[in-house]
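Duplicate of #3305? Posting structure anyway:
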């Protein structure tokens, strides 16, 4: 019996690759980050440190606790980068208020969105992006 290794959903391979490339192009590799996805590949491919107890967000939410505990943990950690993936975001919408009050959407590939903490967004993208993380930005919110 061979060793089983989970594989990311096929459509997310290209999205993960594009997001990792963008993160590296912005010099964000190594930045404190949370990846809200069932897949853990972005931590490795974008060289992002793991801040939560486990990479897959569904495991993290179980270990951290329910009733918004994961969102409170992310808010307390104040990561510079948060990456959301559509399916995982739909399953754990409690992270949305954290994103809408302290982060700006900076890049999107398919259902994956890179959110930057407001001070990081201002430094990298300039003040013209202010408010980009609001629901009116066109990014899922």
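Output from current build:
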């Amino acid at each position: 019996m061979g060793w089983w290794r989970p594989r990311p959903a096929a459509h997310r391979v290209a999205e993960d690759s594009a997001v990792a490339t963008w993160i590296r192009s912005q010099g964000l590799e190594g930045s404190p980050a949370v990846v809200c996805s069932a897949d853990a590949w972005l931590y490795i491919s974008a060289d992002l440190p793991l801040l939560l107890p486990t990479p897959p967000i569904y495991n993290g939410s179980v270990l951290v606790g329910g009733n918004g505990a994961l969102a409170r943990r992310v808010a307390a950690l104040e990561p510079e980068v948060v990456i959301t993936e559509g399916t995982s975001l739909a399953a754990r919408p409690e992270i949305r208020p954290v994103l809408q009050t302290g982060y700006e959407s900076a890049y999107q590939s398919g259902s994956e969105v890179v959110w930057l903490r407001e001070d990081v967004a201002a430094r990298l993208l300039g003040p013209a992006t202010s408010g980009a993380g609001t629901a009116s930005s066109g990014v899922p919110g």
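Confirmed duplicate; merging threads. The chain has seven helices and four strands. The mean pLDDT is 81.
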